[in-house]
Amino acid sequence: MPDSVSRRRFLASAGAVLGVGPVLAACGGGDVTAASCQGYSALDAAALQQRQSLDYVDNTPRPAELCSNCRFYNAPEGGSPCGGCQLFPGPVAPDGWCKSWVIMAT
Fold first, then answer.
1. Strand pairing partners for 97?
2. For the chain, which residues make up each domain, given as ranges?
3. Which of 8, 38, 72, 75 has the greatest number of beta carbons closer than 10 A?
4. Is the dihedral of CA 17, 18, 20, 21 positive or negative?
């Protein structure tokens, strides 16, 4: 049996060496995904395209810019971990982000 390293093992090792863990933690950790929340599976292709056109992601690449501190975010209801957005349909992860992010007025 040859002594080879799989691509997955190599990338995991490289990530650990380069300190990717703290970077991901600073971006919210990624515990909640919109796809895991109620209502996501009912979204049609047009709704998914609308989210994609705004570059929505479940884990922000900008630690200070979270969906949960955006003026367009609707807080979760009924114990759901996901909120919503005034710009597109479906659930939104609180640690998410899109290119329409605007700081919530205080």
1. 57
2. 31-106
3. 72
4. positive
The CATH number given to 31-106 is: 4.10.490.10
Tokens 């490289």 correspond to 14
Q: Give the count of beta carbons closer than 10 Å to the beta carbon of residue 3.
A: 4
Rounded CA-CA distance 80/9 in Å is 35
Q: Give dist(CA 59, CA 25) in Å, integer.
A: 10
Integer-rounded Cα radius of gyration of the chain: 17
Q: What is the mean pLDDT of each run of 10 residues along the chain (106 residues)?
A: 50 42 41 93 96 97 97 95 97 97 92
Pairwise CA distance, residues 86 & 106, whole Å? 18
Contact 39, 90 (CB under 8 A): yes
Using the structure block, give the residue that is written with the tokens 């009924």. 78
Tokens of 79: 């114990």
